User: Fold this.
Amino acid sequence: MKLSQARLALLPMFVIVVVVYVGAIVWTVGISFTPSRMLPVYEFAGLDQYRALFRSSRWIISMTNMAIFAVGYIGGCLVLGYLMAIFIDQKVRAENTLRTIFLYPHAMSFIVTGLVWNWMLSPTEGIQDFVRGLGWQSFTFDWIVQPRMAIYTIVIAGVWHGAGFVMALLLAGLRGVDEEIWKAGRIDAIPRWRMYLHVVTPILAPVFATSAVLLTTHAIKSYDIVVAMTQGGPGISTEVPAKYVMDYLFERGSIGQAAAAATVMLMMVAAVAAPVLYARSFAKSRRG
Amino acid sequence: MTNPASRRPAKARFSPGRIGIYSFLFFSALFFALPLFVMLITSFKTMEEIRTGSIFSLPRAPELSAWIKAWSSACTGMTCDGIQVGFWNSVRILIPATVISIFVGALNGYALAMWKVRWAGLAFLLLMTGAFIPYQVYVFPLVQLFALSGTFGSLFAIVTVHIIFGMPVMTLIFRNYFSSIPEEVFKAARMDGAGFWWIFFAIMLPMATPVLIVAVIWQVTGIWNDFLLGLIFAGRDNLPMTVQLNNIVNSQFGEREYNVDMAATMLTALVPLVLYFVSGRWFVRGIAAGSVKG
Assistant:
């Protein structure tokens, strides 16, 4: 009797898992093997959509941009976030104020982030204009309108949004490091920077792994920030896979092509998340 | 977090190392603070001043006209009712989506942690795996489902979508919390004859206040800042503030009114920013709780 109440309570979850978290994925993967355009067509077309996808220069540019963004964004957030966490952990004054300043961008949306940085980096109104106004007439910082450099401005905005988040996670990790370890280091007269590099960093490996997985999924999903900052431009130089899917779904009316692109995104996330999740569940089961 | 004061012996106050530490922190703080500063000062300038002055110069005579225009008469395409339309749409989406998704998450977490239900473990595992997968994989089938039921592009659709995609993290944090409650509490309640719902409402929910706060912070920030889902599912009449903001800024014709753009951007960022400054350390607990997926 009581058990059926619990089952009843979980019914919405069961339905959503089956319909959305399993059903929708299966449907999308399935549709990627069909020639569907405006409406779903249920006939098998093999790998045609994938061939078209990887022949499309826009998709190749999107994938390249995603790789550049992922490396810059994840690397930037981890390095800057870790440095900020270490430096804040040196018993500095105004710790709370600094933490508040480092983390507030994370409370804002990627749309807001993109629009602010678009304004800051605008060559005619932003930082370039400011420096030129100071007298350095030849100063140039116009990446946002340079097709080859525009993606790096999105990296800057992304790091601005995410580094404080990594700082918060790592600072909590640093505060959790056993005081005995520091004592041992002092007794052996090991310099502090070596302690951080060779002792503390390996201890924090799980926190780094968690942060990296989260940032990677953000990087693969990134859409809002590009739409707000460059709309994929100049030209198609800052297109990303998530935007490719959206455009083919809602503007170009090619469901099959969008599904193939979404499936590739799915596989990329799986390739990143699966090893970490596996390693973690393995560690858990070993601990008992 | 432990008290940092009791950690390592004090160092000389003005050693080169200390100066290095403080200058690094100072320049980092500058990098993070500048965009907010620029947003604020730009929104208080006139267009004339923006054209002639630099991006970092303070407004000579701060004025609110850009804020008033952003709120009540900025244009998105054909209509010129300001960003207030998006603000109220976001409020209408936010309240039901937050309340229902937290309730469902709490119920799921409680049932998963304290009751044995067949297949529940597997369903939870699938739910958590699904949380990593990009929305792009789900959106089209969901669009079709809502279209079939005639609810595509409605308040109902966008609220439901937020409940669906909020479910993994909400369920996870409540499950983790309820799992940490001693089993004796549950057993004693059962001995007294309390049933599933009684234990949930009278015992477990009141105990869960800390998680409820974390959940509210997580959902309010996430739902308010959402762009993609609102763009697809909310429909023309319910577009949330983020979507409207992007429309105002990126679909302007002629000269861009940066002061109005920045005022509108500030207005959109205000709700999560206020929540962030008010909630303080709870916010950090919130993002930490959500990051331990799996």
About this structure: Chain A has a mean pLDDT of 91. The two ends of chain A are 33 Å apart (CA to CA). Residues 255-287 of chain A form the longest helix (33 residues).
